[in-house]
Amino acid sequence: MPHDFKNFPELTNAQAHFYYFQSPHKQIFEDFSATVVRVHDGDTITVRWQERDFDFPIRFADTAAPELNEDGGHEAQSWLENRILGKEVDIIIDQNKRVEKWGRLLGTVLQGGQDVGHEEIMNGFATTWENRKEGKIEFKLPEI
After folding, report:
1. What are the boundaries of each domain within the chain?
2. Cβ proximity of 31 and 89 under 8 Å
3. Which parts of the chain fold into alpha helices (H)?
4. What's the pTM value of the predicted model, to 2 decimals?
5. pLDDT tens-digit profile of 71-108?
């Protein structure tokens, strides 16, 4: 059965054994730098990378932000836009957790040497992935 590279450009580690040489674009297995061209929500961005001829999503590893239809969702998205939209970021790839279940590349996003997902958690706009099921993310405006 052929792989749908248009809708699912990233191959999981298991899929890479079968489809790696059929991939029309470079598969990502190592850390890289790219420019943020869109912020979907509080834990997913789209980046532009010189090694590919299309923009693609990155899901923040180990970070869970509210969905846009939940309390705090738009605030998390806005914070992230203000923090990294249009900026160069470093994406750190974990070889064992490269692609999540929806086919997005997972990565730790660094900007200016800072872990942006960790900053988002510390500022109250997200929680850790492990704590996501402990109820809703309690949204609070940061104190200034």
Report:
1. 29-131
2. no
3. 13-19, 73-84, 116-122
4. 0.84
5. 889 999 999 999 999 999 999 999 888 998 888 999 99
Question: In sequence order, what E strands does the chain have?
Answer: 32-39, 44-48, 56-60, 63-64, 88-92, 105-111, 114-115, 127-128
- Per-residue confidence band for 29, with pLDDT thresholds at 50, 70 and 90: very high
Q: Quick one: tokens of 112?
A: 């200016």
| pLDDT value of residue 135 | 54
Cα gap 116→58, rounded to integer Å: 13
* Residues 34, 115: Cα–Cα separation, whole Å: 15
Q: Does domain 29-131 have CATH number 2.40.10.500?
A: no
* Contacts of the segment 111-118: beta carbons below 8 A, 24+ positions apart: 111/83, 111/84, 111/87, 116/60, 116/80, 116/83, 116/84, 116/89, 117/43, 117/60, 117/61, 117/62, 117/63, 118/63
